[in-house]
Amino acid sequence: MACTENIVPSGAIPKQSCTNQSINDNPWQHRLFGKQLLHCGGSDKLVDVNSAVIGDKGTMCDVIGVYFSFINPGATCDDFTRQLVDLYGNINAGISVNGDHGDHGDGARRKKFQVVHVVLWSNVADVLDFEESFRSHVADLPWLAVPNRDYERKTRLTRRYRIKSGVPTLILLEGTSGSVVTRGGVERALADPSGSNFPWRASHPKAALEDGPLMPCGARDSNEPMLHEELRHCIKGVYFSAHWCPPCKAFTPQLVDTYQRIRERGHSFEVIFVSSDRSEESYNVHIESMPWLRIPFSQEERRKKLAIALDVQAIPTLVILDPRDNIITLEGRAELLEDPEGLNFPWTIRLVNILTEKYATSLHDAPAIILFVEGEDCEVQFGESVLLPAAEAYRRDRPDYDPNYDDPDGMLHFFIALDGETSDILREFVGLDDAVPLLTAIDIPRGVYAVMEDGAEITVDSVQYFIDGFRSEKLPTNKIAASQKCKSDKA
């Protein structure tokens, strides 16, 4: 497990696409990959996404793997790519995987596994010819690839799945819905090269948590072990860390401080340490300053099962679970760093958020309803009162949190934008004046925005009417200023 931090592209407002594309009635794979992909294997043939993932009998491919690989000049294929080719061939050749031979009784054999390759470079300074490097890399591969020149698509996919530079990553998606099966496809394939358990759907974390006692760490005020059942009323933070990892050593004292503040305010909160240390000696040093519980170092299989169940790809990672061990957030570390006092603990998903730099990057991936206000407390309360009913209606049939739930077709965010730098940058980027209150629908991926008509009263009903009009594309829209500039620069 690599000691690496989540790398999210910086900057308050993401780079604008120069292409506009209608999203009405598009299947999820069009939203994610565009309408055409390159067929690898030495040809420049573009194929329709639907024909690539839906068989000749109209049956959907079971699993789609989005494979991000990084190459150096002259490289043709790394070790994992070769292993993935073998896995791809085995699964699609009708070899039995979990008892399913792919034969569905009508003479048609359904493709179980398709790969969409996103080729990136780890050292761009030395690349003389990107197109030639790309062609060499995919020449002998049996699957599909995002066209090399589709830089915007690559950027969006890299942002969406938070790909770390230089780290090959395989994201497995459900063919029917696009929801995430696992973000750890590389690790799972290395551990199971034959694909006998493909696509490695994770079990519930409760099974690993219940599998034995939880022991006290060195700075805990009690030496008594605890059973998972004794934590049934607690919010739990499952902390994956290692003593050899510098970001972990920096984060652990911050977690200790916030943990103590949260408990002092009366919250039932417990942390469970899951080690990635390489030796028991290192492990013992690491737990000396921790005031919480731990899974014993000797229980390696239990620790691995928990990492798989929570789809942990890097350390340090802090996953927050509710009392029933359902995931509240996989981003506990980021939440804690933004809220070190733990005032918003347990960091459940809010339907309406204040637009900060943290959230601004998400505007690159999906449309948002944004109400601009000056920033007084009463205006924030007003913003929440008129946006929340619409956000609740929109989210009514969606899970509160599910790490595998991912709907690229219908995602819509709701924000209140206060006076400040992030709002100023966004206004300039889109081409908005400085009026407040101002209700907008901003769709950066499509390069368009809509504004509630001047003088209209902002109420619960008018907000819902505005949102319905925007989603059905019945509202008049304007081109985003940065999009127009981008087109003019290319002309």
TrEMBL record:
Q: Which organism is it from?
A: Fopius arisanus
InterPro entries for the chain = Thioredoxin-like_fold, Thioredoxin-like_sf, Thioredoxin_domain
Q: Name one GO biological process term.
A: negative regulation of protein ubiquitination
Query: Which residues belong to any copy of the Thioredoxin domain?
Result: 161-357
Which superkingdom, per the lineage? Eukaryota
**What Pfam family does this protein match (any one)?**
Thioredoxin_8
TM segment ranges: none
Q: Name one GO cellular component term.
A: nucleus
- The residue stretches assigned to a coiled coil in this entry are none
MF terms from GO for this chain are: thioredoxin-disulfide reductase (NADPH) activity
Q: What is the name of this protein?
A: Nucleoredoxin isoform X1
